[in-house]
Each structure stands twice: as structure tokens, then as C-alpha cells.
Amino acid sequence: MKVTLRIFRFNPETDSEPYYKDYEIEADPKDRVIDVLHYIKNEIDGTLTFRRSCLHGICGSDGMRINGKNMLACSILLQDLGYSDANKTYKKPIVIEPLPGMPIIKDLVTDFTDFWKKYEAVKPYLITKSPPPERERLQSPEDVELIMEASKCILCACCTTSCPSTWSNEDYLGPAALLKAYRFIFDSRDEATDERLDIIDTPNGIWRCHTIFHCVQACPKEINITWHISKLKQKLVEREI
């Protein structure tokens, strides 16, 4: 089938402003978006730049905006983007853009520096103050279940860059960082709950979330991020009672 990809292009070293370039190729409906991007780069235009690593929805490297929605390019098939079986073609181009709200390094590659700073701010690691046990720190199945979904986050930034609160306030921690805060605040082995609650209990922290649910819609791992954030809000309110 024939498919046209309309790809956002911008090289800050040579371009005065971004532009879109169309590539018409033959592809299989079961090809992934990342497959056709590879084909374009390898066979048509070697200057096209994008990130990818594992190609199996685990590393989170290839998050981008596809037809107006944040997705992983390795996890979406062409047939899921409007393919018409009747005439073996697409009714309109597939538009591929970088994740919104981030500085652009080149083409589909964005600068994650600020994203990682906010991630690091919530101290995304186990903190213990009591002496270590002779063996591992045990958890019950119930304790594990409490943090299991939050642990599936692959830090692709699809949620954070889909959040209107992030677009309007560059200092907002964002859903990815808050989800990681939940993962450790609700970890029964961790002993820094109040420390992390203080970090997120700020005007640019958890209270900047207005429960719009864009993060839930964008998450490629189908994590109910808003629910986790609501549990953090509940824990903060209970702390004040």
C-alpha cells in the first residue's frame, strides 16, 4: 500500500524555522511507525533524526506525536492509523512530530534535561534509615501490588508532554515525576515518606495537577496516573489532620 508520512523537520544549525516534509512510500499495514521511519532514514533521507533503542516498548526512547497523540513509534501499527482496506491507501498523511513542550535538538529528538531534573527531584530511589537486615527487605504480595502499576513506568515522557499544566507552567513537576514519587512513597520498604511528601507539596508540585486525564490517555503502558496522583493528594491531606 502507499502511505504518506508528513514529518516535522528542524535542524537548528541550518534551519531558521521548522517545516514539514512529505515522504510517500510503499508499506505493509502491519508495519510499525518506527519501521517506516527506519526505511525513510536508511533508503530515502539519511538526515532524518529520531531516537529509538529496544524497539519493543520497554525503553521509552521513541516517544513522539503521531497524528496529534503522544505514542511510542515502536508500539503502533500503520493499520491503526486510518488505513483504508478498500483502496489500499491512507485518506490523509500520517503526521509525525516531536513530543510537545520540550526544546527540539533536531527533527523528532527533544531535550529531556528538564524532564530528568524533575524526575531526580523526587528522589527516585529507595531510602532507608534503619540498619539493613541480614537478608533482603521483604514485602508482602499486598505491598507489592500497591506499587506494581506505578513500577511499569518507562519514563518515555508521553504523559508529561501531554499535560496542559506542564504546557502552561514549565516549573510543574509533571505526572511522570509524581508517579515516581508515588512508587517510593507507597513502598513499604522506604523510610523517606515525609521527605518526598514535602518535595511534592508545593505550588509547582502535586497541586498543579487539575485532573484532566491527558496523562492517562497518553500512557503507552496504560497506567492510571491520575489515580496514583489522587492517592498522593489524599496522603498529604491525611498528614495534616
UniProtKB/TrEMBL annotation:
Enzyme Commission numbers on file: 1.3.5.1
Keywords: 2Fe-2S, 3Fe-4S, 4Fe-4S, Iron, Iron-sulfur, Metal-binding, Oxidoreductase, Tricarboxylic acid cycle
GO process annotations (BP): respiratory electron transport chain; tricarboxylic acid cycle
Pfam families per the UniProt record, alphabetical: Fer2_3, Fer4_10
SUPFAM superfamilies named in the record: 2Fe-2S ferredoxin-like, alpha-helical ferredoxin
Domain 4Fe-4S ferredoxin-type: 144-172
Record InterPro entries: 2Fe-2S_ferredoxin-like_sf (IPR036010), 4Fe4S_Fe-S-bd (IPR017896), 4Fe4S_Fe_S_CS (IPR017900), Beta-grasp_dom_sf (IPR012675), Helical_ferredxn (IPR009051), SDH/FRD_Iron-Sulfur (IPR050573), Succ_DH/fum_Rdtase_Fe-S (IPR004489), Succ_DH/fum_Rdtase_N (IPR025192)
Cofactor: [2Fe-2S] cluster; [3Fe-4S] cluster; [4Fe-4S] cluster
NCBIfam families listed in its UniProt record: dhsB (TIGR00384), PRK05950.1 (NF004616)
Record text on subunit structure and interactions: Part of an enzyme complex containing three subunits: a flavoprotein (frdA), an iron-sulfur protein (frdB), and diheme cytochrome b (frdC).
Family note: Belongs to the succinate dehydrogenase/fumarate reductase iron-sulfur protein family.
Entry protein name: succinate dehydrogenase
